[in-house]
Design goal:
Layout: H1 5-83, E1 87-90, E2 96-101, H2 110-116, E3 124-128, H3 134-141, E4 148-152, H4 158-165, E5 173-177, H5 184-187, E6 198-202, H6 208-214, E7 222-224, E8 247-251, H7 257-264, E9 271-275, H8 281-288, H9 291-296, E10 299-303, E11 324-328, E12 352-356, H10 364-369, E13 376-378, H11 386-392, E14 400-402, E15 424-426, H12 437-442, E16 449-451
Parallel strand pairs: 2-3, 3-4, 4-5, 5-6, 6-7, 7-8, 8-9, 9-10, 10-11, 11-12, 12-13, 13-14, 14-15, 15-16
Antiparallel strand pairs: 1-2
Helix pairs in contact: 3-4, 7-8
Length: about 475
């Protein structure tokens, strides 16, 4: 079949007309049936959206209310902690990152301990003189972001400590002090600690087996094992396995000259504290004559060792990098300070000097004043009169001064206003001070921190100075 041109034209017009009619019918169908449905759906959607927005507003309001209640609860917890003698530390955003329950009143109740663990940003927790319940151990173990943990005289045992240590992978600092139930078994989990940098085990029933565990550590740099009397003298040889060990504190009746000799061979040691030991002047002299040890030493301290006097300390002049000297309850008069000079006879550039509860005589204070690089000075428990204080006022860089229990009176304290850079001052235990001393203290224009516990000046919270 074939079509001529007219037939094709008629057919094309008819086809176009048919398409147009169909389009009109589709439009009418959409107009009459589909559009109202879409409008209804849109209206329903708008209603649903409005309902959702209202519900969202309600949820946000409820959340804000809950957040406010939570912040109120946390504020009450902080107030309870501080009113009981504890302490908290906040970050720049105001979140509590550290809780200290190791001081203040002797016992914090278990409920208080549990509430103290509700801060989500907690990085440091210190607990002392408290009962430790199984629930508390579980809650501590759940603090996955905890970096520092401190237990003092708390009834925690090896099993409890293991439960905590195996659950906190980011722990960097651990202190265990006077906890009889902790043995080598409690320390064993530290073999798996990948970030531990500082460990203090003071007055624990540990043996050389714990040092075997620690000798495998790749991160430990600071170790305190004072008064762990079951660690034998020969066990200290194992310290050589702690590759990064730079700071060491030891003490107790087993510490003698042979242990000092072992310590002197530790290749990276820069800081050493020895307490309550059986060392002799000859043993200390031998240690300080190890030139490799003397060249590295930056921090050195002795405590309660009656055999060591001023003359025995003269060897410290062989330590060119020494920046801190700390003596506590030592039979020293201060004469050794004359020997702490360099090759050019100028005083060594000490930054910290602690002579806490030593037997300083009056001539010691002008000697201290020659160390013009001092930033921190501790004279707690030492008789410091007005003349002594006046001689120390010439220290141009001194920022921190501890005069706790130094027999201060209103008159003897007057030269304190002459210190040009003093920021922190501790006057605790000076029972002869009266409120009249406040006028003297206000003249220290640089002072930021003042501690006056046990004085007539009252508690720090009542004073106009920042603690």
């Amino acid at each position: 079949m074939s079509f001529d041109k007219n037939e094709k034209r008629v057919f094309g017009n008819a086809l176009r007309l048919l398409v147009g009619v169909i389009a009109i019918l589709v439009f009418v169908f959409w107009l009459l049936l589909i559009r109202p449905g879409i409008g209804g759906i849109q209206a329903a959607h708008k209603m649903e959206l409005a309902d959702l927005n209202r519900r969202l507003d309600e949820i946000q309001a409820e959340t804000a209310g809950l957040r406010a209640e939570l912040e109120k609860h946390r504020a009450l917890v902080v107030e309870a902690i501080e009113s009981s003698g504890g302490g908290v530390e906040r970050n720049e955003q105001g979140s509590v990152i550290a809780v200290d329950l190791s001081k203040g009143r002797e016992v914090f109740e278990n409920d208080m301990l549990l509430r103290a663990l509700t801060f989500p940003e907690l990085r440091t927790l210190r607990i002392g003189f408290c009962a430790v319940s199984p629930d508390l151990i579980r809650r501590i173990a759940a603090l996955r972001h905890l970096e520092e943990l401190y237990f003092r005289e708390t009834p925690i045992d090896d099993a409890g400590l293991e439960a905590i240590l195996t659950s906190i992978p980011r722990l960097k600092r651990l202190t265990l002090r006077r906890i009889p139930a902790i043995t080598d078994a409690g320390i064993a989990p530290l073999a798996a600690a990948k970030e531990l940098k500082a460990l203090s085990c003071i007055s624990l029933s540990l043996t050389g087996r714990s040092l075997d565990v620690l000798s495998t550590s790749k991160t430990l740099s600071s170790l305190d094992i004072r008064l762990c009397g079951d660690i034998a003298r020969e066990d200290y040889e194992k310290l050589a396995g702690i590759a990064r060990l730079t700071e060491l504190k030891i003490g107790g009746g087993t510490i003698d000259d042979s242990v000092l000799e072992t310590v002197g061979r530790l290749p990276n040691l820069t800081s050493l504290l020895v307490e309550d030991a059986q060392i002799t002047p000859e043993g200390l002299s031998s240690l300080l004559h190890r030139q490799d040890f003397a060249d590295r030493l930056r921090w050195f301290g002795l405590s309660r060792i009656r055999a060591i006097d001023d003359r025995a300390l003269e060897g410290l002049r062989r330590c060119p990098r020494l920046r801190t000297v700390a003596m506590k309850e030592m039979p020293v008069s201060g004469d050794f300070l004359d020997r702490l000079v360099g090759d050019d006879r100028t005083p060594m550039p000490l930054e910290t000097l602690s002579l806490n509860q030593t037997e300083l005589i009056e001539t010691a204070f002008p000697k201290i004043a020659r160390f013009v690089t001092l930033k921190r000075l501790d004279l707690a428990g030492v008789l410091v009169n007005a003349e002594a204080l006046k001689s120390l006022a010439g220290l141009p860089q001194l920022r921190s001064l501890n005069l706790a229990s130094s027999y201060q009176t209103d008159v003897s304290l007057e030269p304190i206003a002459l210190f040009p850079a003093l920021e922190s001052l501790d006057l605790s235990g000076n029972i002869y001070l009266s409120v009249a001393s406040a006028d003297t203290l206000r003249r220290i224009g640089t002072l930021k921190t003042l501690t006056v516990r046990g004085t007539a000046l009252g508690s720090n919270k009542d004073e106009p100075f920042e603690e």
